[in-house]
DNA sequence: CAGTGGTCTAGACCACACC
DNA sequence: GTGTGGTCTAGACCACTGT
């Protein structure tokens, strides 16, 4: 991965930016970079576009490419995900805390209409229903209800489900979950939320719900996550074009 | 904008996909498309990459490009933003409801340290503090607190601030806000939230806070939005690579 | 081995910003 | 007008998939 030309250039530029090699916050023009690193201008553009997508630089037609000053202030609001995390254990800053899983429920059910639609199921397909309580250092922070088609993972067991399913997929079946569509919202806590997540009645949960996809586009899991509100922090960098 | 070759191809393919012109959910290969539409393969790749970023298709090296079945089910969970909306009046589905603004407060203040950092301000820079209640059809749904450096918009007035600031920027100064960094979270409602947004004490608010940037990368506004929880629905399509 | 997407190049021409 | 990023092309070669 890192031996790709545009990846190397990307990484080089990123290091230089962080190191403060461009005190005037302006990068050299694309043609110069192309010359300097002996790569085509297209490759330079590719690297710079990624930096722009990540919010690290701004490209301004006619004047140049400029470093986002906010990115340099390392302790600032600007430490975000690049939207590039998936999997519960990766998505939350655990700050050295040990993640845990407590299995609440594990059974096979007939999917509701909506679920059938979202997971692209046929009429007589069944799904596993997996309800788990997620913890950090024995402190519960999320109730997760997952639905996985039997036909995708017929071998699923209480054992597997008590650990990270994504890791299992990766290691045992060499399949990666690289895409997800999620809706983020907030709700008052239910009695169950309050009990499991140790919430006061007036304290809410954050809700993240949606579909995870395998590399090849197969909808793999529908998941509904109810988070202790203090643990829900979703960072996004958005660009509009149209 | 739409006369660009890759944009046209993009729009053509999107229409065909929605129209069901590819019943087997597989697009023609890139070289065929290049031939068929008399454009270079690079241009085809560009259009297809955008479709992939939007989650509409999956590209699989060695086998082809496939349509995401979820995208075809139009009424499904899959109708999302592409993360491509900015500006309050654009960002929420208004469903024909008329947006309104009630100005709660408008003054000049000395920015706190954190704000100074996020807006990249110097020691003696001042900011406008603009607090507004946003409505749909006279129903309040959001309390918005915005902070804009005086030096960026010295001409700001109660009049301007009572309408859409982004529209004003666009029309009067030909500057667009095209990027934002936001953190999304949830909180119990405060007394003020409950009063302004007509919430019960146990009902929460969604919080979206962060920085909006001008085209040239200037941090333009820090905004903190507290939303009636029923109005907070943020949709994301995330891809991981690394 | 054939088919398909991924990377990379070299160069032409356009559009916008600034002097 | 010069500098800079944006679009587009034509083609070479690589990497992975599936027969």
CATH homology group of the largest domain in chain A: Chorismate lyase-like
Low-confidence stretches of chain A: none
Mean pLDDT of chain A: 86
Largest interface: A-B, 58 and 56 residues
Radius of gyration of chain A: 22 Å
H and E order of chain A:
HHHEEHHEHEEHHEHEEE
> Biggest sheet of chain A, strands in spatial order?
3-4-5-8-7-6
Largest sheet composition of chain A = 6 strands, antiparallel
CATH architecture of the largest domain in chain A: 3-Layer(aba) Sandwich
The backbone outline of chain A, from C-alpha atoms, is: elongated
Number of domains of chain A: 2
Pfam families (chains A, B): GntR, UTRA
Keywords (chains A, B): DNA-binding, Transcription, Transcription regulation
Protein name (chains A, B): GntR family transcriptional regulator
How would you describe this protein?
Chains A, B: Keywords: DNA-binding, Transcription, Transcription regulation. Chains A, B: InterPro entries: Bact_HTH_transcr_reg, Chorismate_lyase_/UTRA_dom_sf, Tscrpt_reg_HTH_GntR, UTRA, WH-like_DNA-bd_sf, WH_DNA-bd_sf. Chains A, B: It comes from Lapidilactobacillus gannanensis. Chains A, B: This is GntR family transcriptional regulator. Two copies of one chain form a homodimer. The first copy, chain A, folds into two domains: 5-72, Winged helix-like DNA-binding domain superfamily/Winged helix DNA-binding domain (Arc Repressor Mutant, subunit A, Orthogonal Bundle); 88-231, Chorismate lyase-like (Chorismate lyase). Helices cover 29% and strands 33% of the residues of chain A. Chain A is built from nine helices and nine strands. Chain A starts with a helix and ends with a strand. At the A-B interface, strand 1, strand 6, strand 7 and strand 9 of A face strand 6, strand 7 and strand 9 of B. Chain A binds a DNA duplex (19 and 19 nucleotides) through helix 3.
């Amino acid at each position: 991965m890192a031996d790709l030309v545009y990846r190397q250039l990307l990484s080089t530029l990123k290091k230089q930016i962080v190191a403060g090699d461009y005190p005037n916050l302006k990068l050299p023009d694309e043609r110069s970079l192309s010359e300097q690193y002996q790569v085509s201008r297209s490759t330079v553009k590719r690297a710079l576009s990624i930096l722009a997508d990540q919010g690290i630089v701004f490209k301004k037609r006619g004047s140049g490419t400029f470093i986002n000053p906010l990115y340099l202030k390392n302790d600032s609001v600007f430490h975000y995900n690049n939207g590039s995390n998936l999997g519960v254990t990766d998505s939350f800053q655990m700050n050295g805390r040990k993640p845990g899983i407590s299995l609440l429920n594990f059974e096979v059910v007939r999917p509701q209409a909506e679920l059938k639609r979202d997971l692209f199921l046929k009429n007589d397909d069944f799904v596993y229903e997996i309800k788990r309580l997620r913890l950090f250092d024995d402190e519960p922070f999320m109730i997760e209800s997952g639905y996985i088609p039997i036909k995708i993972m017929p071998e699923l067991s209480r054992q597997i489900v008590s650990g990270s399913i994504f890791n299992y997929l990766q290691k045992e079946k060499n399949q990666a979950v690289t895409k997800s569509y999620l809706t983020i919202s907030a709700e008052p806590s239910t009695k169950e939320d309050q009990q499991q997540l140790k919430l006061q009645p007036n304290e809410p949960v954050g809700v993240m719900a949606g579909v995870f996809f395998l590399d090849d586009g197969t909808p793999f899991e529908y998941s509904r996550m109810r988070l202790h509100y203090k643990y829900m922090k979703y960072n996004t960098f958005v660009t509009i074009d149209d």
